[in-house]
Amino acid sequence: MKRTAFLNARLIDPAANLDAAGALLVEDGKIADAGPRLFNDAKPASADIVDCGGQVLAPGLIDLRVFTGEPGAEHRETLASAGESAAAGGITSFAMMPVTDPVIDDAALVDFIKRRAAANAKVNVYPAAALTQGLKGGQMAEIGLLQEAGAIAFTDADRTIASTLIMRRCLTYAANFDALVIAHAEDPHLAAVGHMNEGAFAARMGVGGIPAAAEAIIVERDLRLVELTGARYHLGQVSTAAALEIVAKAKARGLPVTCAVSAHHLVLNEQDIGEYKTFAKVSPPLRSEDDRKAMVEGVRSGIIDAIVSSHDPQAPETKRLPFAQAAYGAVGLETLLPAALSLHHDGGISLIDVLRRLTIQPAKLLRLDAGRLAKGAPADLVLFDPGSPRKIDPAEFRSRCKNSPFKGRLMQGRVLRTVVGGQTVFSAT
Amino acid sequence: MTGLFARQHLLAIAPLTRHEIESLLDLGAEYVDLNRQISKKRDTLRGRTLINLFFEPSTRTQSSFELAGKRLGADTMNMSVNQSSLKKGETLIDTATTLNAMRPDIIVIRHQDSGAVALLADKVSCSVVNAGDGAHEHPTQALLDALTIRRRLGRIEGLTVAICGDVMHSRVARSNVHLLTKLGARVRLVAPRTLMPAGAATWGAEIFTDMREGLKGADIVMMLRLQMERMTGSFLPSQREYFHFYGLDREKLALAKPGALVMHPGPMNRGVEIDSAIADDIDRSIINEQVEMGVAARMAVLDALSRQLPNAERKI
To answer: Which chain A residues have a beta carbon less than 8 Å from that of B193?
Structure first.
């Protein structure tokens, strides 16, 4: 039996509302024990010892929104490189978006991703499958068969289903299998003519705008359909105060609705596009400062359930272009933790509440037996120094792509060690 | 015998009483026996004219009515829409009044729109039989199904009948729910949510979206045809997924009562809603028997209606 003892740690387990000095014991890939009094009297016998040096030991982060390039665009990211990048970011599990070539809309492809990830990725990869075949917004995907094959959720990822009728049928059918639907909320007709948030800044830059209403319109539509169908609905990324208000009302009515926010929407606003920086071109677009503040408030109040990286690796040939022609997307696996920690350092949100939205909350959403430091749970852990200052240098990223909007930014938080199933998959040198 | 059934038309099961239904079934049972004899001919409808007016293609229902009319001695005529003046722009009601002027005694009508048969019945002086209107009712199908069950199991009261599949588009399901519940059966509706109409829970049947649960302990498994021709806008992802979760195969049938009987109104989509091995299993499938009962049930309906015609010789 392989045993590893993590001593001298600051244990933070949001699921148990625990934030205390203590120790944790891993046996055969699972958490055997954890708590403030563990090993107070005697050192563990016959176990490898990790001295945590008083740093934070928490459940490994769970990221609900990651794009890779495998299969089909391996030059952008493979499952292996995404796994390396995630491990370096303290992320032990992620849901993978089905935007691949071919699209993950067939049970055999779900099986392919699971096998490839098990063989090549250092962290747990949970493939999400397409909600409609080919992500085309028409014929629904084989939700039942895909779910049996192991698809964790159903989503057209970065596309909104334009037809209200098709969306209704998809939600009705998903409810039939109690499947989680992850939606992208952006009215496709309004968004088609824009590239950044609509407003004075976009007008001055001469770039077509996407109004905040494009998000609110679809969220309102979708939540009416949730009420009609009873489907489990997760808004993949909320970016506007208007949409958040609609989600809050739906939650108050008891609808099965959750939402997440991307790290970059918590930290950056439209002004960070600066001189047409395409690394800051993301979908939905970076919004106004008022919207950004509303997102931080949403995390604080709990209306926002999870924080995600929206990791979307783009190669230079899709980013080194005029702003309007450049692809959407930003890498984020290795900046998720420091970006989220800024809510603690600058936003006054407790560390345990920030971590709650990165661990147990996304785990519950995906119905994973992870995201907590409980006995018997898989030993997926992150050891990090929450205060350590750093300047973000994408050249250090393990990801194959370096398109980070946080490039050169001063942030706090450094991952020291990442453990998946009891195995150390990343260790800071 | 049919003294309890005193209507000009048979448009739906919903308004019928249990006694009306039972009198039609009793009469149907007599015609089953007649149909098994060498001489199947009666002169009940001698001199009468029966028109089959089908706005939707049909093989078995139309031929079943035609045969029923002929065996009862009526002059029968088939009209299908591709020959009719409706193609030339005539309205439905004009077609009805034109036909009515030819003084038929009974018109059997199938139409793709719910309520269309009742609309026509309002405009004619003869009797009208609904041979299926949209997703509303198909009363003679429910009667023949009941006749089949009654002859096989001796009763309907107390049986558990699982009606499975495309409930949304099915007039067969609606007529059967009405008839079977009136006769005291426990009816279950089994369908994926996209094919279960909103409000089906108020029909007096139990609702299941998991077929395995819905089949548990059923005496009768009644499969519905997946009506792909009526589907626009993605009700289902694919036929293979539908068969996997809602197709009747040996494994799922094993959850029903041992020896449970399998029915299907036809035409079947083999490998979509029913496995061929089940459809052809002579111990379980009574699908061909349903076709036989169809002629008898329709003879009973035509007979009963003809007794109500204004110039009928009363033979009570």
So the answer is: 172-173, 175-176, 229
Averaged pLDDT, B50-55: 94
Q: Alpha helix locations (H) across A121-180? A: 143-149, 164-176
- Enumerate the H helices of A57-183 as residue ranges: 79-88, 107-120, 143-149, 164-176
Give the ipTM: 0.90
- Asked if residues B176 and B156 have their Cβ atoms less than 8 Å apart, the reply is no
A268-278 pLDDT tens trace:
999 999 999 99
- Give the total residue count for chain B: 316
- Range A32-56 average pLDDT: 90
CA diameter of chain B = 57
Q: What is the pLDDT of residue B316?
A: 42
Interface test with A, best of B166, B168, B210, B241 (most A CBs within 10 A): B241
Q: Buried b vs exposed e over B172-210: b needs ≥16 C-beta within 10 Å?
A: bbbbbbbbbbbbebbbbbbbbbbbbbeebeebebebbbe
Reported in sequence order, the residue ranges of A268-380 that DSSP labels E, i.e. its strands, are: 306-308
Interstrand relation of B186-190 and B206-208 (parallel, antiparallel or unpaired)? parallel
Flag whether residue A173 sits within 8 Å of chain B, measured between CB atoms.
yes
Cβ atoms of A95 and A128 within 8 Å: the answer is yes
Flag whether pLDDT at B231 surpasses 50: yes
- What's the gap between Cα A425 and its chain centre? 19
Q: Hey, is B260 helix, strand or coil? A: coil
Q: Name the residue with tokens 């948030």.
A: A197
Q: Which of B235, B244, B245 sits opposite A169 (nearest CB)?
A: B235
The helix/strand/coil state of A219 is: helix
pTM as predicted = 0.94
